[in-house]
Amino acid sequence: MSQQRIPGAPRTLEGDELNEAKKLLTTTFAGLPAGDGPTYQVGNVVSVTRQVVAGTKYKYVVDVSDGSVTEECTVTIWQQPWLQKNGNNVKIECKDVVKLNHTW
């Protein structure tokens, strides 16, 4: 019996979709304003899911470095392209502590 995809459920990305999601993560981190605290760097990407829910939500499990410490974190990027203002959000959460929550 084949597995059915449930509409709106998160889906693990592979191949070209995974590569595109990694590019999005790198571009998003590079575009964060310097005044929001440490400059974060992306390390090893463990996994990525994509979910369509009032926009597109990407959820990454990734090693993140702030220049002095590297830890495994969950990074969520939520895009709502139809909104002219505040249509993008990035949230970095490590060990249940929100390190960054930025909307633009």
Tell me about this structure.
The protein has 104 residues and is α+β, with helices and mostly antiparallel strands. The protein has one domain (11-29, 39-103). The protein is 15% helix and 46% strand. It has a six-stranded antiparallel β-sheet.
Number of strands: 6
Q: Indicate the overall shape.
A: globular
Beta-strand percent range:
over 45%
The total count of helices amounts to 1
Quaternary state of the chains: single chain
Distance between the termini: 44 Å
Average pLDDT taken over every residue: 89
- The overall number of domains is 1
The major beta sheet can be summarized as: 6 strands, antiparallel
Give Rg in angstroms: 14 Å
- Helix and strand succession? EHEEEEE
How do the strands of the widest beta sheet line up side by side? 1-2-3-4-5-6
Low-confidence stretches: none
Blueprint of the fold:
Elements: E1 11-12, H1 15-30, E2 41-52, E3 56-65, E4 70-79, E5 88-94, E6 97-103
Antiparallel strand pairs: 1-2, 2-3, 3-4, 4-5, 5-6
Gist of the model:
The protein has one helix spanning 15-30, and strands spanning 11-12, 41-52, 56-65, 70-79, 88-94, 97-103. The chain has 104 residues and is of the alpha+beta class.
List keywords for this structure.
104 residues, alpha+beta, six-stranded antiparallel β-sheet, 1 helix, 6 strands, globular, Prot_inh_cystat_CS, cysteine-type endopeptidase inhibitor activity
